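Data availability excerpt. The first of two example chains:
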Amino acid sequence: MELRQLRYFVSVVDAGSITRASDSLNVVQSAISHQLRLLEEELGSSLLIRGGAGVSPTAAGLALYSHARTILRQVEDARSSVAYEEAHISGSVAIGIAGSTAQLCTIPILAAARASCPDVILTIHEGVSDALVAALIAGKIDMAIAYASDATEKLETLPIVSEPLFFATTDPHAKRDYAGRASIELSEISRWPLLVQSMPGATRAAIDRACWRAGIKYVVAAEVNAPASMSAGVMAGLGSAVLPWVAIEMIERRDGLLVLPLSNPGVHRDVIMVMRPGTSPSRAAACVRDLALGIVRELHAPLLQAGEERAA
């Protein structure tokens, strides 16, 4: 017994005529008649009384008609339920967002997830990049917006943006020495005590890697992990720092702040999306991932442009 046969049978009974059912179903009469004969043969009973004025159901046909209507309605309900579940995304997703990227993007990502997938319970963990990568490997979070480092090399990654790093200072001697300069060479940062991340930290690692390759040693004024605290320390004259432009843009009052791009060589921090290899994200996780990728790229675009203009 096929659903098609039940659908044809119900349509013929409702129409009272194979001809009218043919018009309604947009199926030729011979095909309908053939399926009805197969249905009668399978059930071993005559289902329709055929006459010159049309057709009407037999007692067996009436019994089948009631069941067939119920079956077809249940099938349609099942289709609707499946379609709803396909369009309806729910579940729990945990995402980590590192450093200054979290300051910029956490609230926009929350807002976008609320609008696009309101039944997804989203948990956002903010922290140091490598700590978030460790949480990802341990299965505590589903994905992380982090910074490329040795810790991310064996994971599945998607590139987002590459941020140039800048020397930022309020030191009066540095401001005097570099007045009118378009950039500061990497070797020159060794002259100024720096506020840096404690290790591990992706921005610190990028600076250390570049300095190691160039044979440069810098002086650590203090280790500060929170981007906002590091920026505040620079503004308070407690040390200079090497920062991405996004962190500099978040300083509300920049009076007296000197910002110069690093050169010879320049230093970059790569923002990436990190996931565990060999795992397929749930529909909820895929929705959050795609939203987060778009938002981070969108919000970084004007900042990168401003940084490039500053470096030009």
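And the second chain:
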Amino acid sequence: MKTQSGLIALLLFCCFLIFFACRGPNQPEPLYAPNFQKPRVTGIVLTDTEGNAVMVWGNPNGKVVADKDKTGDFLRMYLPYPNPTNGSVFIEYVLRTPSEITMWIVPAVGPNQERTNIGHFGNADFFSPGGVAIKVFFREEQRSPGGYRVHWDASEVPAGFYRAYIKTDGLLVWQDILIIRKKSDIPPGFPRNIFGEGLP
């Protein structure tokens, strides 16, 4: 029985390799979250339609990971707005120097949601990369110094948590976004009074 499980796992691994090897020559490699896992959102800053912070829920972990000491001198990513949203959000950022920039969004998990990258097939377990980009705005595009605003129409994706990444010149910054369309989408412990009667 173990031999059969091992063969199934090997077959799945080979299929995974073939899938990635068979991409067309002009098809870019998929973008992922760091460590190939869905990122965990520990809180968000709620913003209004103008980008003003309204309140904080949990312990937001929008961060800058950088090789340089003064990250703000090179790249700054502002809070997405409105957040939470029912499907349309703006993301603003500022570049201080000419840079090649990549921007993408991945699904994330909330504070109490399970995060797993193990798939199951029959009796075999296999690693399934998580945090695959659902939206790539641009990839290694040259940008001049200045402020930019990107619109994400998320009306086609399920309600839940998402993370927007911007990467350039050894810097990686991100902000978390929450999409809520109905009352049952509201995470446990999230303030419900901010929606009034606007949710079904």
